[in-house]
Write a structure and sequence with these properties.
- By secondary structure, this protein is an alpha/beta fold.
- It has helices spanning about 50-55, 75-80, 85-95, 110-125, 130-140, 155-170, 185-200, 215-220, 240-245, 250-260, and strands spanning about 10-20, 20-30, 35-40, 65-70, 70-75, 95-100, 175-180, 205-210, 225-230, 230-235.
- The strands form 2 sheets. The protein has a 6-stranded mixed β-sheet, with helices on both faces. The protein has a 4-stranded antiparallel β-sheet with strand order 2-1-4-5.
- Strand 4 and strand 5 form a beta hairpin.
C-alpha cells in the first residue's frame, strides 16, 4: 500500500504550549513536504512528544497554526471557539495523520485483526469486509498474518509495534507520526521495526519520527530537527545537523549519543 497521490504538506507555525508554569514548546516552526521523512531529536523533556501529539490533535497548543493538507487550525483562535467547533477542528486535523506510539497502545481485549480494523470500521465507517481484507494484506506484509486472531499479550514487543504500524497504515493517512517507536523494545527486536520504517520511507510516505536512533536519522531522514528546551534550535539535512552542527548545543547532544560514557 502506498500513500494517496494527493499532495500533502505539514506546516507548523509559532506553536507554543505550556503546562502550568512550564513552557514546553516555544514558538516552534517546522515545514514538511510531501514524501519527506523528518526526524525529531533532542534530550528528554525537550518537547518532542508534545510537538508530535500536537500534530495529531492529541495535545492542544496554546498558540500557533498547524496545517496538514487542506486543514489549518489556529490554536490561538481555537480557545475562543465554541467547544463543538473546536472539537471538529481537532478531529479534522487528526484525520490527516496516524500515530505509532512508544508503548504500542493496542487494545488488550481485542485481537490483532480487531485492533487493526477498529479505526477503519468505527471511525472511517468503511465496510467491514473491505477493512478486514486490507488488514490481512498489511499483516501479511509484516509477517504477522498468522497472528490475526492472537491477543497483544501473546505477541513480543516487536510484533506489537509492527501491529501498531499496521494499524496506522490501515487508516490511509497523509502523515505517519512515530513517537520513539523502538525505545521500548529489546535491542534484538529493534531491527525489524526500523527495517519496516525504512521500507515505508522508500515508498514515499510522509513521516515525522521522534527518535533517538541517530543512524536511522542519518540514513533515512530527509531533514533532522533538533529540539532544545522547547525550541527548534537547528533543522536541516542529516549530514549537516548530525555531521556538522552549527550550534554548540547540537554538537554536545550528538556527541553524547554517538560516544556515550
Amino acid at each position: 500500500m502506498s500513500p494517496s497521490p494527493a499532495k500533502s504538506l505539514l506546516s507548523v507555525s509559532a506553536v507554543s504550549k505550556a503546562f502550568g508554569d512550564h513552557q514546553v514548546l516555544r514558538a516552534v516552526d517546522l515545514e514538511v513536504a510531501r514524501g519527506e521523512v523528518v526526524a525529531i531529536i533532542g534530550a528528554s523533556g525537550s518537547g518532542k512528544t508534545t510537538l508530535l501529539r500536537s500534530l495529531n490533535g492529541l495535545e492542544t497548543p496554546d498558540a500557533g497554526v498547524i496545517t496538514a493538507g487542506d486543514v489549518a487550525v489556529d490554536f490561538g483562535a481555537l480557545a475562543a471557539a465554541k467547544p463543538s467547533a473546536a472539537d471538529r477542528q481537532r478531529a479534522a486535523l487528526r484525520d490527516k495523520s496516524a500515530m505509532v506510539f512508544q508503548h504500542y497502545h493496542l487494545f488488550p481485549h481485542r485481537t490483532v485483526l480487531q485492533n487493526v480494523t477498529e479505526g477503519p470500521i468505527v471511525v472511517q465507517k468503511r465496510p467491514r469486509e473491505e477493512a478486514e481484507r486490507e488488514a490481512y494484506s498489511l499483516l501479511k506484509r509484516v509477517g504477522l498474518a498468522d497472528k490475526a486472531d492472537a491477543y497483544p499479550h501473546q505477541l513480543s514487543g516487536g510484533q506489537q509495534q509492527r501491529v501498531g504500524i499496521v494499524r496506522a497504515l490501515a487508516l490511509k493517512p497523509a502523515l505517519l507520526l512515530f513517537d520513539e517507536p523502538t525505545s521500548a523494545l529489546d535491542p534484538e527486536l529493534v531491527g525489524d521495526v526500523l527495517l519496516l520504517m525504512r521500507d515505508l520511507a522508500a515508498e514515499g510516505w510522509t513521516m515525522v519520527v521522534v527518535t533517538h536512533e541517530l543512524q536511522f536519522a542519518r540514513e533515512v531522514a530527509t531533514q533532522v530537527a533538533f529540539l532544545d528546551a522547547g525550541s527548534v534550535l537547528e533543522v536541516g539535512p542529516p549530514a549537516q545537523v548530525l555531521g556538522e552542527p552549527r550550534e554548540e548545543r547540537t554538537r554536545q547532544f550528538v556527541r553524547r549519543l554517538t560516544h556515550p560514557m
